[in-house]
Amino acid sequence: MQFNAKRIPEGHSVLSQNVPVTGEKAQWLSTVGDVSCTADVDRFQTQIHLHVRYQCVVRMQCSRCLTPITQPLSGEFLLVLQEKTRSQDRRTLPEEEVDLFFDEATGDVDIAPLVFDEIVLSVPMKPLCSEQCAGIAVKNDPAIVVDLAGENPEIDPRWKALGKLRNKENR
Ligand SMILES: [Zn+2]
Fold first, then answer.
1. Which residues pair with 55 in a beta bridge?
2. pTM to 2 decimals?
3. What is the dihedral of CA 159, 160, 162, 163, to 10 degrees?
4. How far apart are CA 141 and CA 145, in angstroms?
5. Is the CB of residue 25 less than 8 Å from the CB of residue 113?
6. If you measure from the C-alpha of residue 64 to the centroid of ligand 1, how many angstroms do you get, rounded to a whole number?
7. What spacing in Å lies between the alpha carbon of 99 and ligand 1's midpoint?
């Protein structure tokens, strides 16, 4: 989401933009189409407050069976932008309250990286194609199912061999 702060009027306004996921971020995030963003913008002199809402469809892989899946994701967050001024203006916010500084001379603002960070954080860690997903059926043995989600870690084949030995001893 890019805009020029010089064109943001004092008071309230609304910005809407479709943001493509490109460049470095595309390694972390794959979407079907663009990320649709709408922001409520409130400007007070050199400060700009944004309430951003985003919507997109994320491409993922089922954490159990590795099937590609898509899932709609949406969310919202607040951002505080502050013009970088050389003068010691009392109306400027302290640094720790500012998410992004923009240049007074150019006014260029790009909040796309911040939107992408929010989306990446809201992507589920272990997505499932369905709650009932049984995981990967091991080749030639449909009875063995590997649960990659980690709740039932696969038994190391060497331990299985030990188990067989033990069973023989008990006979
Ligand atoms: Zn699955």
1. 36, 74
2. 0.73
3. 120
4. 9
5. yes
6. 5
7. 38
